[in-house]
Protein 1
Amino acid sequence: MKHTREEMVNSVPHTGFFGHPKGLGILFFVEFWERFSYYGMRAILVYYMYDKIVNGGLGMEQTTAASIASMYGALIFMTGIVGGWLADRVLGSRRSLMYGAVLIMAGHIAMSLPFGIPAFLASMFLIIVGSGLMKPNISNVVGGLYHKSDNRMDAGFVIFYMSVNMGALAAPFIVGALQKNYNYHIGFLAAAIGMALALLAYIIFQKRSLGLVGLEPSHPLNTEEKAKYKKVITTSLIVLIAVLVITYMTGILTFGTFSIVVTVLGVLLPIIYFRTMYTSKDVTATEKSRLLAYVPLFIAGVMFWSIQEQGANVLSIFAKEHTQLDLNKLYGFDFIVPAAWFQSINPFFIVLLAPFISALWSKLGKYNPSTPIKFALGLLFAGVSFLIMLIPALTSSDSLYNPLWLVLSFFLCVIGELCLSPTGSSVSVKLAPEAFSSQMLSLWFLTNASAQAINAQLVKLVEPLGYTNYFGFIGGIAIVLFIILLFMNKWVTRKMEGIH
């Protein structure tokens, strides 16, 4: 690289946004609108897929819609591997996230067009590729604003995480209202406008706020490597296109078979990724020890996101089909709650609680819980968030749940999310081998990809098990992993080699 990490960090104005580097402010704004576009679209996506064609939907089965929603989420995070590699080796983080923003905006525009399945598939492709370029790299730029020893980094990631949830909070209300009063495509258009605002803000303010951070690849390809990868990528694309054409023409390519492929990738990719980094000659012995410490944290992250991400498919459908939304029948209020509004519960509690959690970590100082303990707490609350749904099923004969049970479930999961998610981003930056700085963030996002890839199969168990048994099964697994991670706390901490 032309510049060291120290030089890049020092090029940034280190105050200007609530005691944090000035660049955190522009990244906060960009992430807010990018997340507005994503969560606005996602709030109505599963309904759009299984709603009747006469109502403007695609007419899919509910189970298929839930599985596709999981596959979509998984692929968004899987392409983060490619985005991280391109940033590290070719483009740099800043250009990668800008190109990603353009593709995401184009994807939302495609979804706003009333052309059925073709527009839906085109939109999915553009948003998946664009998110892969943008998502890991904007987080990597956030991490690049701080020295690795800067105690503000954890708090900075919590503040950045608030932007995600502020966008996610506003989006379902606005997009859901537009969909209800007009149609699905007007709702998707609002998501496209949100992404355009993010892109415009980044182009205008990035140079003066971000300095040298992320401008160049951290481990650029040499001439020999460029020729090698050009051949590999070209060959891979030709083979992929040939496989898609053959399987489509023979009838093998269906949503069902594709979901199995995505699930297999979700399991294999992290294994390949860890092995590649661990065996690299550019990774030192200390960095290898830290990678070993990262393995149980990764597994805990997968379990947590498996539960959290089901809020957008399993719980989303549950809210519409099995929850009493007519408040007149519960409390005497003449109002029917739109099912899409439940997607704002999670970000609402995060925006409400994030400042307190951030302040708590800073206040505790040397008594701050270790990273594995924070991850364990995340698993505990996630597991309980599903197990709590057993109570109304076992104590009430009503066919429809009181919506407050869903609110409580989301609330418990949020507490776990604030323990685990910002800590995961921060520790990924801290434990990253120098040669894989951007790709380590991609690996962290792969916890979500693997979780949703597995969810593509797990959600198919809802119908045979029933919701009560399903919630108990998934919640129970999370509690078991919570106990295991508690026992591994000292080992993980020791392997982190002085990183906390």
Protein 2
Amino acid sequence: MQVIWRDSADNATYEDARVGRVFNRRRPERFPLAVVKATCQEDIVAAVKLAAEKNCRVAVRSGGHSWAAWSVRDNSILIDLGNYKTLEIDAINRIARASPSMTGRELNSVLVKDHQLMFPGGHCPDVGLGGFLLQGEWNWGWACERVQAVDVVTAKGELLHCNSEQNEELYWAARGAGPGFPGVVTKFHLRLNAYPKRGFRSSGYVYPIEMFREALSWVISISPDFDHDTEIAAISHYPDGDDKIRLFILFVTMKDKPHEAEQALRPAQETRPTGCVEEWFCKEDSLEEQYNSQGKSNPEKHRYCADNAYLKDDADVPAVLEEAFTTLPHRKSFALWYAMNPCSRRTLPDMALSMHSDHYFALYTIWEEEHDDRRCQAWVRNMMKGVEPQAVGAYLGDSDFQVRKTKFWADNNARRLMEIRRKWDPQGRICGYLDEGDLSGTQGLDNVNQWKM
């Protein structure tokens, strides 16, 4: 087990261990006592026991993609899982067993090529499974619904297998607790999907931003009755080589046969508003093409500030989002609306994840220079202040608990989750939720909508 101590390692080595794998270049001024570079489950057990010996907390990093860098915590032992990569595939039963630092691209590169299977991991190719699954995340349904079991090192350093029949509380919490999960997941047992034999198909429609209300109103109106194998999103961004913001509406469907994909996508083609700057219908696509597109939209070595909201089902969504979608502060930034209906209308499984609505909205503000920090962060705050009166809650993964209090779970689920946290980690060994001042401890989050002025 490699341990890099702050008080004995040279500064370059320590800094690389501290933040070298943090995706967001807006790096935090927080300093772990040590970083453990784990390569196996035994290293994780030993690291948790080391933290108990030193009477300090444990933080965990799987992919390093948290916008708020939750893994970097003062006076903690940071367990970095970047060198712990393990993957077992049971193709017959369509089950994969993967370590948290495996990314969606790494997992699917094996599944698709060797087994014609896939797992709907993060849209962004370098997001680790750990944060993606603990927070729930949406990708052709809630990804955490496909978690059949987890292997966990508890705050006491015990290695447990958790599913619906044993250690059920931890299994329940692992599907939606986010960084407040009271243990360290060492392996996810995942239910897989068949990969479409002919790949994906997509339709895209690019509109002038002046048509924002008309175009977004259209896509909202057709989403509830649209094909259930199709993802629908509206993105405001600056296309390459264009000095104007455009509204890009994308439909991506998973079908085995081209005529099935064409049938699924045709209602959009037949009802779209006229006035597109660019469009395509039922074009051949693939998971790899989706990863490439998302990777380009989320460039490395940039500074990020993200926030999000689930909007009220009956909100006037085009009116609520218009300012955010039409005033991006930087050419690399983008705003997203995601169609959750009809999935948002069904009863979820019994798991921690429990907050959703018909409309998901997120801001991904991206820039390069430190001198733009204040301006870009202020823009996000101002946009969210306007949106918040129409919000019912938010998604954990695109949030920063240091900035505002928000509902992330249904009330009963939130209470149960915080009770499970206290039961399994009464001393607060696992760092948990990074609120203002990092004071949440065993109490966790309040689960209330409250903007911090």
Protein 3
Amino acid sequence: MASDSVALARPTPARRLLLLIVPALVVGTASALILLAVSLLAEQLQAVLWKTLPDALSIGRYSSVWMIVMLTATGLAVGLVVRTVHGHAGPDPATTGLVDPPLPPDVIPGLLVVTVLALAGGVSLGPENPITAANIALAFWLGRRAAPDSTAELWITLASAGTIGALFGTPVAAALILTESLSAGGREPGALWDRLFAPLAAGVAGALTMTLLAHPSFDLSLPPYPGAHWVDLFASTVIASAGAALGLAAVYAVPYTHRAFRALRHPVLMLTAGGLLLGLLGALGGHLTLFKGLDEVKELSADPSGWSAGEFATMAAVKTAALVIAATCGFRGGRIFPAVFVGVALGMCAHALVDTVPLALAVPSAVLGVLLAVTRQGWLSLFTAAVLVSDSAVMPLLAFASLPTWLLVTGRPQMQLHADGTPLR
């Protein structure tokens, strides 16, 4: 009888999940609002730095001189903040991933300040890593006060799902990423979906908040895919493999550039030097190779014939180098959006070289390869590549190309370092 009463008192799975809906919706919505606030603030500052100020000085907005001056100044400003704020704006960004354990909450103000400066100043990094870290820290700090018996995993998954859902404008991206870290591992059927329930609710809240307020879109409006042919299997595999090779070149370069910047020892010197190099790369590759890359890929796709194959290749190479430098000199930021730009430029280069390969196949195939190498997230890479063209006919070809491409990247070093500077595997 005692065991029967205990069983009756134990909450059912459905009741446990229902209790998580409110915190999931709150965390997801708050995560999207923080992302939106940081993005809008960065956009306003970017307009001042790259429009108002150069116009007032009668300097070309994207002249080589202005790009070099602005990126160097951005590095100096970020370095000064990192050097002076409490917690130094978090750990070495080369050692952090997209979803990490919670940071102390008093580190978050400095982290958000340097994120805004980097986004506005033209640094080739996205907002995803620092915003996810900030949202995880705040959700964990506030959540444990509201529910002291709750686990850290709960708040980490809710905040990361809400942020990722907001970043991509859909909860599907959050669910796909979390399935790679939340494994059923021999549990009873449905256990994985039980664990995904609350994060999916947070992802829905984050995605809906961002969609209703900002209307994000990843569709590049490329010419429609004309339909699958046998040769497309070969083309998509070759292009995805080329993207993976370029991504792996960046991955293998990270420990060396990280070591070179660390030899300078002081964050102000490291970031100023990094900013100078980014400015020189911007002067070489043009203004489209600056910033996180999301708006810039839309400018590329709006006029695919506006650049030659060589120019597309130059932009892909410059953006790759800029991503490596930005990720290792101390700038806080994510690697997904710059990697997407690299893939888009590489895919357009492939189409320019062999115009019988449809753009709607070449671009997502290259993005798939670069993202597989840079993020090592299979579902995220497939999803991101697919949403760029919004054509379901391309999906089987991308899935096919992902198989040999994954064999190229699996077991290789990752674009993340241990504290001693050696790469994760």
Protein 4
Amino acid sequence: MNSEIRALEPISVWNNFADLNAVPRASKKEEQVIAFMMAFGQGLGLSTTKDEVGNVIIRKPATPTMENRKTVVLQSHLDMVHQKNRDTKFDFSTQGIEMMVVDGWVKANGTTLGADNGMGVAAIMAILQSNQLQHPAIEALFTIDEETGMTGAQGLKGGILKGDILLNLDTEEDDEIDIGCAGGVDLTASRSYKEEETPSGVMAYQISVKGLHGGHSGMDIHRGFGNANKIMNRLLFEGFESFGLRIASIDGGGLRNAIPRESEAVVVVDEIHHDAFALEFNQLASSIKKEFKVMDPNLVISAEVTDVPAFVMELGVQEGITRAIYAAHNGVYAMSPTMEDLVQTSNNIARVKIKEGKLKVMCLTRSSVESSKIDLANALRSCFELCGCSVELKGFYPGWNPNMNSPILKVLTAKYEELFNDKPKVVACHAGLECGILGQNYPEMDMISFGPTIKGAHSPDERVEIESVKKFWKFLKEILANTPIKE
């Protein structure tokens, strides 16, 4: 299957991507990919080091006649989001990603593809391998754990890098040049509850919400895609209001930075309400599907009779948490007043897990304005504290403030217009990029971000456009051949 990928142009980039995708590289489990990258750099005879947190730095001297140019840091992250469809049998810890070409795009077989940020990593590897490309001195920085905390960028100490310019290869539209991004904070609400014996005379149902689009909780949060946890909560709330539905368990969503696509719950309802419950449930499910028919046409909502569980959750806690999830904000909270069409602040209710006396709700709150981020986080905290949860805020990371006077921005915009006879979009994004964190220890470094076109990141629908990879590679090579002269 991957042989078809290795034949794509540019061959050096796609072959490195295929090699990389054969290596398990989940966030916080990057041991194998770190070893892979260390061996890669050492095999080229280049200076290859690993810092104390696991970031890999490979240095390559300037090509002849380029010694007088400013040193460039090429930066991408090694980890990828591991997500798969529930019906896909795949072990991320032992299997390489199965890739295929579909209508001009490369995608994976029922799993995330790892184009985020594997395409950036592969392009940097191709630059390091090449004996023909013109470039200044390069410091290739491969960070770890970008997707679940950016701890690699946070752990990189000042003074390790000597570069003047940083090219972050981690954005997802090939006509955009990124000069800013949002910061974020992880919010976790949790509590224990008493399990009560399931009443007699009930029927049990397994309720499923699936088939949603999902996507990146930063880049896609404004698109109106359904959130499986919010939809499930609507169903459970109405079931309780009308028929006294009791919850035994909920398992919804996954990673904080992925809009949840699926949720399952086991509930019980008095047998005498079976027919009425089924009728009202189907009516509500039909209404919700109509709401989302444009953005999520494949949404499936079902309730199947299942075995009666031994226990249900404490009634008072059930009422409190369903109301809290209903009240908790999900989606866009505020748009930027200074940059058109830019989401300023948002929240993703990413994970809901209720089982065996413990409940947990996990959110990722993002904003390009620190005070707005804290405002929304406090609003969410208040929702969950009111129903008896303890709330933890952690994983704070800063945004990256745009610099319209960036010297490297002028190089990129001019080169883009020359190569593609069009003007690039100079933007800030609502995703979290590592530039803001790296800039804390390297405040004088001139930073920019760009990349090929990637859709559906953080979901099994993730795909990268083949033509955009050609465009991205051409752009990257020309930038490196035209970097500024040292002052």
